[in-house]
Amino acid sequence: MPVYSSEALVLRTYRYGEADRIVVFLTEDRGKKRGVAKHASASRRRFGAALEPLTRGRATYMEREQRELVRLDRVEPHETPMTAAFGRDAGDGASVLGHASYFAELLDEWSPDASPNERLFRLGAAVGSALARRGSVDALARYFEYWLLRLEGVYPAIDRCPRCGLVLDEDAVLVAAERAYFCGRCAHVGDRVSGAALGFLRRLGTRTPADVVEGGAPVGVLRDLERAHARLIALHLEKTPRSARVVKELGHYS
């Protein structure tokens, strides 16, 4: 039985029998895997906080041919959202953990099984690290959504109106069914996105997740993009992510 060791991001876990757990994790070099973590439910000594969503660490696992489930021996954590939430007040800590679950769920939805995607792994690892910084977690969420959709080739163009060619330097309208941002003259029904929000998106090409957390963004920009990105994600997945509802209930933009 071959043994593999790789940098990995934990995406989610669920019970398997009385004492075990199934762990879905994204490896840097071999894509997404599903593994059985023996006795993980009965005792936290072997894994502890290493199985929290968006934990990054070195996963050691054994894999057999023709078997869907691998055997996950251990995860040695480097970064975990539990550490990022430590020392914050209750609201901020809950926001960090809620967003970690949200990012992990979207990575799970976008990652095909056993298909390496180094750019997707790097995106998840970078936003996981940025969660430990003080600042705007909501701005980080908009960054993550934008790059996730862009890496998959489904983010609409933000430079010109696809109908008339007008440069989109003022307010635009997202028509989700057409997966496009139109100028206000060409579309009257849809989610209006301010010119400031489009400018924020354009600057993301040269900014790191840490920059975004520390720099933040105006409340109106974040609200516009939250609404637009929720439409695009739901359209692409044909559902609303469960964790998105939790994040929304935690409250925003205080």
Secondary-structure blueprint:
Blueprint: E1 3-16, E2 20-27, E3 31-37, E4 56-62, E5 69-79, H1 81-85, H2 90-110, H3 118-130, H4 137-151, E6 172-175, E7 180-183, E8 191-193, H5 195-203, H6 209-215, H7 219-237, H8 242-250
Parallel strand pairs: 3-5
Antiparallel strand pairs: 1-2, 1-4, 2-3, 4-5, 6-7, 6-8
Helix pairs in contact: 2-3, 2-4, 2-8, 3-4, 4-6, 4-7, 5-7
Can you write the helix and strand succession as a string? Answer: EEEEEHHHHEEEHHHH
Tally of DSSP β-strands = 8
Average pLDDT taken over every residue = 93
pLDDT below 50 for ≥5 consecutive residues: which ranges?
Answer: none
Q: How large, in whole angstroms, is the Cα Rg? A: 19 Å
- Total helical elements: 8
The residue fraction in helices comes out at 25-40%
Instruction: Give the termini distance in whole angstroms.
Output: 52 Å
Largest sheet at a glance? 5 strands, mixed, barrel
Secondary-structure-based class equals alpha+beta
Side by side, the strands of the main sheet go: 1-2-3-5-4
Q: How would the global form be characterised?
A: elongated
DSSP strand content: 15-25%
What does it look like?
This protein is an alpha+beta fold. Helix content is 39%, strand content 23%. The chain has eight helices and eight strands, in the order E-E-E-E-E-H-H-H-H-E-E-E-H-H-H-H. The protein has helices spanning 81-85, 90-110, 118-130, 137-151, 195-203, 209-215, 219-237, 242-250, and strands at residues 3-16, 20-27, 31-37, 56-62, 69-79, 172-175, 180-183, 191-193. Strands 1-2-3-5-4 form a five-stranded mixed barrel. The chain has a three-stranded antiparallel β-sheet with strand order 7-6-8. The mean pLDDT is 93.
